[in-house]
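User: Hey, quick favor. My workstation is busy. Could you predict this chain's structure for me?
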Amino acid sequence: MASLSTLPKPISESSFFLPKLSNSISISRVKIRPLTPSNVFKNSNQTQFSSGSPTFDVPLLSCSEVIERLRTSRGSHKPKQHYLAMYSSVFSGITTDTAAMVIPMDDHMVHRGHGVFDTAAIMDGLIPIAAFHFDRFLRSATMAKIQIPFDRESIRQILIRTVSVSQCRKGSLRYWLSAGPGDFQLSPSGCHQATLYAIVIQDQSPPDHSGIRVVTSSIPIKTPQFSVMKSVNYLPNTLSKMEAEENDAYAAIWLDGDGFVAEGPNMNVAFVTKEKELLMPCFDKILSGCTAKRVLVLAAKSVREGKLRGIRVDNVSVEEGKRANEMMLIGSGVLVRSVVQWDEEIIGNGRESPVTQALLNLLLEDMKSGPPTVRVPVPY
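Assistant: No problem, here it is.
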């Protein structure tokens, strides 16, 4: 993977675009050669460009040829994730053909990032914590000023039906609301209707609950207005994850504007203090993690059993976090996972920790056999 230092320089630093200028600035106009029959050739199935350099062929494809090439491209590599079914309100249906799992280029979510999404796990034919994810999804759409195209129950039934068609019993359901296709303008006023997309993903990777290392992110955290909304604007999150991987770490931890511990790139953070309190950062400036909030509820059992003395949601300084007995990441992807090192500091004894493991076990049990209010059965 390329490091940040190897990424292309901005235009302002690239001599390819801007020649070095002397004290006497003089920029001559670039002469553009017009397209004429002598330097452009076309036939029924390809376009050729020739201007004294080797010919470059670009085939002109029919719709069926495009689909076939997409199918071939999909089959040319072995992905860790398999896409079992996709719903799109653009074609008002579900497909199980991965070559057809596409969205329009002029969808405002694609070229302007005007969309929101959420994810729910699928376990043993159940969608755990689905209601919490769904509520956050609709709340994010309202914050993003996206007109929801269906009523709540219709969306819910579409999502359940998509999982049912997929026959997936262990994986994840990811779904989006977008301002919709229409044009490439900045304003969504040309988008005739918001769109709903959903995809069922089967992950073939074996579960890994071993201890991990994290670093402090140097990528600026999103402002609270955008942090609390689960939008598709994940470039800061992606750069943060890349920064972690470049430093042989699993994730990078964000700090908020006041220097307190915030969150990871796509998971929440929690600690077990030396006083045996479960401590989690406040949610007012970060994404309200559905899995994290469920863990806060389940942790009450650990308090009753004496594994914890209390539960607290509060500001967490870096110093307090690094001297904690345990540190963990919590999210729908990682569930609950021990952090054994943060930057150069060893957390606790540097091994997977007992309270973290207990919380993971409580969450796994809850996902399988918790109350109906937190699980949706899928009718296969």
